[in-house]
Inverse folding.
């Protein structure tokens, strides 16, 4: 039996003497705990005779499906292609299906490692890497969706305001909020970024209350027609596969995202307590993401400040923490407030967020001297792990640090006040 593979489906056909074809077609093939499952359809030319989704190892299901299809054939077809033959061919088709499909889907590579090493290709530097998956996470109500949609519009419209961008269409899957809410947010972000009409290039799949499995087919069809699209999922917590602390559930979510999208970005939650550096749920989320970003937020009057801190990166360096500011209008009499501007935050504009920033080497030198009262280059280098020449450079260029005394060849430094 010679099977044919096309677009994740497998088929086989028998040609009647009349020229008509009887076709076995397997789609939605997947290996589950209980065995190999697929949607098996039997067609005459393009007309379905029978179909069902079942464990392909179950003889009773195959026999029932074959009989249903056989009964829909003309008497001439039945005389030529008897039920026993149809049963036997369907058995063989289902037997060969798992191995054949896996042979088509996977390859074994022997790479030639000579030559130049390829550069990493970012879609949005430094947070979204081509061919990889990113999870942005924070406690509920911190501004994740605003940030995620800002990234989506930046990629879709090719904006370089906050990040270096490669322009791509976006499929933004909204599982959390109403269509009206997402449209309003998108309008506000586009207005703030001066993006007009449909130039944002963000296709919004609104499926509030639905699971990822429910929209799987629709999403796959969209991606087949838009292969360059970057997938955004808002959010992992609404994916509908089960408890987030279950390793199998986490693996399933990551597997589905990897199957659907070459490059994806997902929004997740931490618990409400601050200080969590991981998305809520199984550690398999940490294992499955290529880049993990902790978003923290701070409100100052009508401005929402956010910080982006990379907590995991498989292939890239850890970039400095980034700060953005979302400025909103004063609420009107009905309590409505609109987003007016998105900008890079000024240094120390959000004290709580600034306190989260890992101190740089210059800050470490300044902090050590403040703690000790005075210190030499050797003392600072030994206790901070910073190279002596770098310590000396920081000391001599910092106007808030002065020489306090000299003992032989040792120079002691102290804070100015």
């Amino acid at each position: 039996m010679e099977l044919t593979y096309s677009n994740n489906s497998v088929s086989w056909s028998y040609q009647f003497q009349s020229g008509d074809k009887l076709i076995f077609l397997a789609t939605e093939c997947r290996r589950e705990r209980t065995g190999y499952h697929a949607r098996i359809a039997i067609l005459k030319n393009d007309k379905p005779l029978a179909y069902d989704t079942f464990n392909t190892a179950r003889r009773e299901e195959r026999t029932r499906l074959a009989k249903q299809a056989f009964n829909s054939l003309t008497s001439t077809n039945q005389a030529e292609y008897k039920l026993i033959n149809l049963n036997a061919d369907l058995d063989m088709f289902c037997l060969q299906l798992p191995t054949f499909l896996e042979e088509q889907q996977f390859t074994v590579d022997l790479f030639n490692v000579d030559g130049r090493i390829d550069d990493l290709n970012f879609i949005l530097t430094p947070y979204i890497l081509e061919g990889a998956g990113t999870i942005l996470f924070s406690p509920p109500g911190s501004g994740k969706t605003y940030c995620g949609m800002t990234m989506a519009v930046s990629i879709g419209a090719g904006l370089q305001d906050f990040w270096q961008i490669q322009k791509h269409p976006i499929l933004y899957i909204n599982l959390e909020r109403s269509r009206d809410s997402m449209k309003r947010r998108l309008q506000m972000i586009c207005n703030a970024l001066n993006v007009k009409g449909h130039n944002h290039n963000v296709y919004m799949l609104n499926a509030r209350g639905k699971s990822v499995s429910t929209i799987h087919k629709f999403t796959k069809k969209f991606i087949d027609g838009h292969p360059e699209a970057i997938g955004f999922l808002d959010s992992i917590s609404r994916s509908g596969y089960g408890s987030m602390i279950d390793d199998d559930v986490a693996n399933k979510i990551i597997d589905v995202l990897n199957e659907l999208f070459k490059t994806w970005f997902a929004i997740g939650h931490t618990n409400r307590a601050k200080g969590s550096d991981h998305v809520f749920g199984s550690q398999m989320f940490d294992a499955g993401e290529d880049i993990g970003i902790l978003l923290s937020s701070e409100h100052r009057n009508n401005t929402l400040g956010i910080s982006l801190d990379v907590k995991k990166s498989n292939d890239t360096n850890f970039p400095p923490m980034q700060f953005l500011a979302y400025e909103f209008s004063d609420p009107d009499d009905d309590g409505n407030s609109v987003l007016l501007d998105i900008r890079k935050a000024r240094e120390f504009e959000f004290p709580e967020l600034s306190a989260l920033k890992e101190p740089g080497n210059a800050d470490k030198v300044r902090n050590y001297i403040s703690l000790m009262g005075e210190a030499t280059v050797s003392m600072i280098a030994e206790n901070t792990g910073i190279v002596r020449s770098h310590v000396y450079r920081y000391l001599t260029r910092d106007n808030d640090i002065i020489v306090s005394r000299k003992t032989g060849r040792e120079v002691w430094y102290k804070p100015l006040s």
